[in-house]
Amino acid sequence: MNYADYQHLTFEPKPNGVLLVTINRPEVLNAANARLHWEFTQVWLTVDADPKTRVVLVTGAGKAFSAGGDLALVEDMAGNPDALTRTMREASDLVYNMINLDKPVVSAINGVAVGAGLVVALMADVSIIAETARFTDGHTRLGVAAGDHAAILWPLLCGMAKAKYYLLTADFIDGREAERIGLVSMCVPPDQLMAKAFDVANRLAQGSQLSIRWTKRALNNWLRQAGPIFDQSLALEMLSFTHADVREGVKALREKRAPAFPSAR
């Protein structure tokens, strides 16, 4: 794909080979519909093939980074084998394509991050979050197993105890807590977020490209070793979509109430 082919991601080349990528559905807090979910998987391949780009800096338009998936997308997946097969492939491609991209990725987490957007935010090599931003993995709140990226990444970042707590409860985490437990690289005041992110991106872009990329490649073998754990978590997430809990989870989100999951009765 060329950059012009993307519908919900915008691209701005900056000095030193930094490419600013903006998730651009601000009218719905940059929530991922089917098209954006797919674009999240492809953009890393496009960047990899772009000789002018050294570093990617990704953020969200408006006041959110990416507020999860459209509920219509979730409802389409429930009990739909074709949709589940497509989504499982895309969720896998998103994680592995980010792992296999040697060029550094910096995320500037400017607001709420959930779902596939959270994958991009935390799978970035350097993640910088605003103090006011909040995120949650959110899967168990919806009634499905925590697939996506969490099983492969969170225990490495913050340890098993914190990973289990936040993934099992689906509690929200703010910027300061995310930095304290090690889920992100750093936390800054909101008005300093983009300046700090560009500073880091420019330093990486002006450094030794081979040594930076090969260091990333070697470090990402920790994630590759956890690949079977991720693959199982993703399969179990898709299996969850065949059960009644997810329908209640979606209904509760639409009605803005606590869910009453059938499996808990």
CATH architecture type: Alpha-Beta Complex
Alpha carbon gap, first and last residue = 48 Å
String of helices and strands = EEHEEHHEEHEEHHHEHEHHHHH
Number of strands: 10
Largest sheet: 6 strands, mixed
**Unreliable sequence segments:** none
Name of the level-1 CATH class: Alpha Beta
* Class per helix and strand makeup: alpha/beta
CATH superfamily: 2-enoyl-CoA Hydratase, Chain A, domain 1
The DSSP helix count reads 13
**Count of separate structural domains:** 1
Write down the overall mean pLDDT: 96
* Shape summary: globular
Portion of residues in beta strands equals: 5-15%
Largest beta sheet: what is the strand line-up?
A: 1-2-3-5-7-10
Q: Percent helix among the residues?
A: 40-55%
Evaluate the radius of gyration: 18 Å
CATH fold-level assignment? 2-enoyl-CoA Hydratase, Chain A, domain 1
What's a concise summary of this model?
The chain is an alpha/beta fold and 265 residues long. It has helices at residues 34-48, 71-77, 81-100, 116-123, 139-142, 150-158, 160-169, 175-181, 193-205, 209-219, 221-225, 227-240, 244-255; strands spanning 9-14, 18-23, 55-60, 66-67, 105-109, 113-114, 126-130, 134-135, 173-174, 186-188.
